[in-house]
Amino acid sequence: MKKTIFTVALMVVTCMAFAQKEFIESKSLVGIWQQAQANQSNDGQIKLIKTPVYKVLNTDNTYVLFSIGSNDLTTNVSHWGTYKITSDSTFTESVTRHYTSPALDKSESQMRFKLLDENALLMEYYNDANKKWIPELWIRVTPLKPLNNVN
Amino acid sequence: MKKSIFTVALMVVTCMAFAQKDLIESKSLVGIWQQAQVDNSNGQAKVVRLTTYKVLNADKTFYCFSINNLNNLNSNVIHFGSYNITSDSTFTESVTKHYAFPALDNSESLMRYKLLDENTLLMQYYNSVNKQWVPEIWVRVTPRKPVNSIN
Questions:
Q1: Which residues in chain B are closer than 8 Å to A59, comparing Cβ atoms?
Q2: With b meaning 16 or more CB within 10 Å and e meaning fewer, what string describes B64-95?
Q3: DSSP label at B89?
Q4: Which of A7-11, A23-27, B44-48 has the lowest mean pLDDT?
Q5: Beta pairing class for B108-117 and B90-98
Q6: Cβ contacts (< 8 Å) between A94 and chain B: which residues?
């Protein structure tokens, strides 16, 4: 019995180590995402503008969304909960706590998603009031490139 | 055997649900932290927030990411790994991958810490080159206050 518990505990720890690398260097929906918007300039060029809104989709199917305020870089968590991938293009988001809109505590959202490439995610949530899918664009927070000037 | 594996698995899932709440509404070292510095330029000490974030997860993994350019808000993961609390004022940080300084891959740092209040953390890491403890201030990323104008 003790041996079994030890073995399972060891498996859990090993899984966590793999999960952490899978999370940081993810090529799937899992990962740290930064919201962006596509702006079209006068010459017709489309440019991605990153916004200070971050969504972390953890490997244990929990998620958290936080953003930076406009004045003094104060950063706050807006909502958190769990998510469940239901197909290769859909998932549900279950809000445990929604601090900005407490009416959304314990609510569930239907989501569509598409990885445009490994690091760009098109996500859509269904707005019940307008009966419309609202698109959001998210860019992955990727590992920093090595700095050369330090030993 | 099957029963004990099921019991351990159930415990793990239960822990995860609690762990997420622990992370977001934490009053301990666990949590999402934003680096800050004390600005004393006009004679009155003021805590100024920076754009580096450290997430100390309840499962003892951590990662650090920062916005490296405030103009375009480009954000990257700097390093990740695991940590181990060794006393009420010390912990060790084991870096699995350090993207900025690959020489620090698989390195370990001794850390001192003190919670100045629930949401302010004084952390010190030991710089073995200078033989000095280097202080850092971190401010917790707390839940956002409800917005009244949203239904």
A1: none
A2: bbbbeeeeebbbbbbbbbbbebeeeeebebeb
A3: T
A4: A7-11
A5: antiparallel
A6: none
Interchain CB distance below 8 Å, B16 and A62: yes
CATH architecture of B2-140: Beta Barrel (2.40)
Domains of chain A, first to last: 2-140 (2.40.128.490)
In terms of Cα–Cα distance, which of B125, B101, B126, B19 is closest to A62?
Answer: B19
**Global confidence as pTM:** 0.86
> Among partner residues B1, B5, B74, which is closest to A50 by beta-carbon distance?
B74
Query: Residues 117 to 136 of A: which have CB under 8 A from any B CB?
Result: none
**Domains of chain B by residue range:** 2-140
pLDDT for residue B40: 87
In this prediction the ipTM stands at 0.85
Distance, CA of B55 to CA of A29 (rounded, Å): 19
**Contact call for B8 and A5, based on CB within 8 A:** yes
Least confident interval from A56-60, B40-44, B86-90: B40-44
